[in-house]
Amino acid sequence: MPLNSEIYDAIIVGSGAGGGMAAYALTQAGARCLMLEAGGAYDAARDSKWLEWQYDAPYHGGGCENKFDYFLAAVGGWQVPGEPYLTARGENFLWFRSRMLGGRTNSWGRISLRNGPYDFQPRSRDGQGFDWPIRYEELAPYYAKTENLIGVFGSKAGIENLPDGDYLPPPAPRCYERLVANACGKLHIPCIPSRLAILTRAHRGRPACHYVAQCGRCCRLGSNFSSPVVLLEPARATGKLEIRLNAMAREVLTRPDGRAAGVAYIDKTTRQEVQARARVVVLAASSCETARLLLNSRSSRSPDGLANRSGLVGRYLMDTVMSDVTGYFPALAGLPPHNEDGVGGMHMYMPWWNYGRERQNLPFSRGYHIEFYGGRSGMPMPGVLSGTERLTGGGYGASLKQACRSLFGSFVHFAGRGEMIPNANSYCELDPATLDQWGIPVLRFHFQWGEEELQMARHMQTTFREIVAAGGGQVVASAGADEQWGISTGGQGIHEVGGARMGGDPKQSVLNSHCQAWDCKNLFIADGAPFVSLADKNPTLTIMALAWRTSDYIAEQMRQGSL
Predict the structure, then answer these.
(1) Which residues are CB-contacts of 387 (< 8 A; sequence separation ≥ 6)?
(2) Quick check: pTM over 0.90?
(3) Using CA atoms, how far apart are residues 561 and 563, in angstroms rounded to an integer?
(4) What is the pLDDT of residues 483-495, one digit of tens each?
(5) Are 132 and 316 in contact (CB under 8 A)?
(6) Strand locations in 439-525, DSSP E?
(7) Whose CA is closest to 544, among 527, 532, 523?
(8) Within 13 Å, how many C-alpha atoms sit on residue 284's CB side?
């Protein structure tokens, strides 16, 4: 099999939030890095479809399994041709994979929330789950550096367990957002400016957003954050980063002493295995893909997979608890066309407001936040058509057109995003019989929500209905895979984390507090796999901050000759 004779300082598997940050920080420190990306090239300036209409997508978007956008269906989604995954009998789990340079950072919602002090010590607060081996104060400087690098708009809200950052100014609320904010005020629910990695003024050589509002397709001008634009371009500019595309990592190679020697991958263009060597290996392929790599990296020293002496690789998988409601607001109906310019996402949201109550009279221990979208900018025409059916009984011809014009802009969609408590029944393992098209064993998922997550979803549904009613509206749709509870399917949030958790005890964790494998000193993880808990905050900002902290540790250990 081909063997590259060069020995790199570090091999980084994955080019998304964690991998991109590792490449940025390590190359800035002078390390020579090789990045392996399972997908192909993606250049936002050339490839973004930011001005195309949805109906111009292939097959008019029919059959698309990419949650984010029809135009990205060819580079990832719930199913990747030739790369299956399985679920245990009677259980459900959805695994979203992105096969493109930059991964999901090209299409994510760019919600950038810091975990708060409570989120790093959840077991100490309510006796459930596990505490992180680090505290907020240790990661706070890296949150600040990351926000400054990528650019995040927001406001200093001073809300409990929601640390403020140094933000760019937020865009003005739209009409429907003001209506919802007033309704929340009646219920004493805070509704504050969102915190998104989108530029509202020029920042570090990138121009301000000019409200094309197709952020999910990646900005051609770099006005929102993506790994290729913000992290990989400066890393390449150092001359110390080599990127190999269509490189499907198969296993981490090890030396006789148990240390990592490099990575074996399949060149998808030739279907040949290639081996690359390095002093350090950094896995940032996404939580489940990283767990799969470790489990597939078996040897006589590690018969159950690399770094798996604790037996915890793949275990305690978590995802965001989600539930949804759509409301119709008569006050927004029949309005004349008006300006709803803005970024491709929400300008306001509701952070969790019930700290203190969760241990008193709520049937769940953790919290959730509320995202909402609507008006003329946030609800597509199919939603209007279904709304006319529910609210007017349908119509035809001129009457249908008039009903659509009147109702357009009057719907608001509410989406809860809550914390899951890790449980032993949610994990991934290798399926003993199934290989993907590259000859690599695939994952089989087990996933179960606990009683607390079900109760949280029910509380979300009640809260959404209260907000809609306070705004003078009525609920017209409720989403959730479980009709009784209105809760999402595991993995549907695309926030899957865990599977190689960090900790202070090698018997109870896979990694130490620097995301360094206990069993393999020169192996590090820089994606969501090290997460010990999954707060209601979207995980990407924490992935990047943690990856930067890990990379600084790697660079320092290299300088000292310890790696």
Answers:
(1) 328, 407, 410, 411, 476
(2) yes
(3) 6
(4) 556 899 999 999 9
(5) no
(6) 441-446, 474-479, 523-525
(7) 527
(8) 37
